[in-house]
Amino acid sequence: MLLSKLLAQSQHPEGWLGKIMMKLWNRAYFPMVKWSLGFVRTPQNGTILDVGVGNGLTTKYISDSASSSLVTGIDISETAITAARKKNTADNLSFFVTDVEDLPFPNHNFDLITAFQTHFHWNSYVRGLEEIYRVLKYNGQVIIACEKVKLNYFMSGDKNGEYTKRIAKNIGFTKLNTHYYQGWLYYHFTK
Ligand SMILES: C[S@@+](CC[C@H](N)C(=O)[O-])C[C@H]1O[C@@H](n2cnc3c(N)ncnc32)[C@H](O)[C@@H]1O
């Protein structure tokens, strides 16, 4: 009962429990975020999208390291975006409530798109990746990273990343790379 409540918060944080959970996720996932971002050169004078941001700590971290880029964070949860807007302000940073499966952005808009600890929650992973592909610029990069243990739980058909590689390739992504470290899994694609 308690476990299912906590797992539901992970998919869609709400209310006071959601706010607490988002702070706990910061502690748990931020080291993974830093590790993942170490694989890419953060675009300067560009556009960056962070998907499924929770309270926006990762988005703010990205915006600090790319102060000449415009950084946008999105999340399907109102509670998340309210917290993200309250906690993180910077001239180059904005947050919106929206679903990764229906992004309100034009085609070929972003240089880098990141998604930390969220892709296994999307209703349709394929649809989310298709939308990411649509709004990504040519030569743009995508980072998806998560704890492997969550894949075992939420996406057991993709424990070794083969499913992700197959659908990403079908959508049109190229240069698919995977890295593992401790319990973390990282995918990198290019358009
Ligand atoms: C476990 S939290 C991770 C938050 C943050 N990325 C972090 O690392 O702390 C997963 C987040 O994904 C969001 N999410 C789930 N499905 C989504 C979707 N279809 N579109 C956008 N965000 C989504 C949830 O609302 C939640 O805030």
From TrEMBL:
Identify the domain of life.
Bacteria
Instruction: Tell me the ranges covered by the Methyltransferase type domain, including all copies.
Output: 49-144
Q: What Gene3D superfamilies does UniProt report for this protein, alphabetically?
A: Vaccinia Virus protein VP39 (3.40.50.150)
Record keywords: Methyltransferase, Transferase
GO biological-process terms attached to the record: methylation
Q: Where are the transmembrane segments?
A: none
SUPFAM superfamilies tied to this protein: S-adenosyl-L-methionine-dependent methyltransferases
Instruction: Specify one Pfam family.
Output: Methyltransf_11
According to the UniProt entry, its GO molecular function terms are: methyltransferase activity
**What protein name is recorded for this chain?**
Class I SAM-dependent methyltransferase
In its UniProt entry, the species of origin is given as Sporolactobacillus shoreicorticis
